[in-house]
Amino acid sequence: xxxxxKTTTTYFMKNILDAFCRRxxxxxxxxxxxxxxxxxxxxxxxxxEAHLTTPESPDLQRYxxxxxxxxxxxxxxxxxxxxxxxxxxxxxxFDIGMFLNIGEDHIGPLEHTDFEDYFSCKLQLMExxxxxxxxxxxxxxQRVLEHARAxxQRVLTFGxxxxxxxxxxxxxxxxxxxxxxxxxxxxxxxxxEQDSWRIRMAGRFNVENALAxxxxxxxxxVDDQSxxxxxxxxxxxGRMNLFEKDGVTVLxxxxxxxxxxxxLYESLKADYPGQRIVVVVGCPGGxxxxxxxxxxxxxxxxxxxxxLTAEDPQFEDxxxxxxxxxxxxxxxxxxxxxxxxxAQAVEKAITTAQKGDVIVLAAxxxxxxxxxxxxxxxxxxxxxxxxxxxxV
Length: 392
Description:
The protein is α/β, with parallel strands linked by helices.
């Protein structure tokens, strides 16, 4: 669980477990693992697009039964705050629970009444896992640690040297993150043990997601070779998908709230210093109202040009949402334009890009629909438009 990174970490984990299954056919007859994510459901029997981060409880129990009946030895899933608030995972215990981060999000009349309601729902995962894995870099890490230690049989943590607990035998220290031509290399130390790892995904924040999966795999007894293989194979559709052509960089990512945009801009500034950052973004209708302030403020502070557009407007007017975001951009003087049709906004951002520009298509990723007035309306997807225009 976490405000951000659930999907990416889920697929780091799934790819590691798939590699382990392939390397150990005597243990894993199906040679793959199951997954329940924001992107898809794959149980070995059902395989289709997902519409909820965590399925409703009758569906969830059916997926568990299918995974068992398929002979798949592992299942990795995302657990949202709504899953606990609405009792979708009532009575469930997990072998491993990962708490990645926490930020102020999903607060509104349709979700959580306030941050405490949101946080307390997420904390419940720490009450229902045998091994807890916690990111010491996150806000409120101490509270999560205390909750986990009161309930879990084992608690593993990770963080940079300044946040690590050097007296904790189960703390992994993250060191020396280096950007490569594709992805990043990084080093971890645990007691006297030191290891180097590599991922191919863009976004240096994904190093933390990868490390959470590394710790989970080690807790399950997965060998290092399977871990390395799984890390290198990881690519999640709509999450930090990077394309480069004629001096223009296009990033398709699911960033959609304060924490994800903060991490995204930090990564862009570090990895593309001095380059012009152009962002296509919107906010959903009817929920998470604070995102409009947060995304407008962060984008005003960090972007060089903005295209404000539709993102699941539901029963609200797209232009009104964009104008509200713009009200938080204006104090910073960042130029912007409102293009209500998202496909047109994405196309203009890419076709008018200048050499050296970094174009960010944020919040929709691989999704082939817009949520409009209670219906799923077809949309080509940011990812498909980028691939079409760049001929990749």
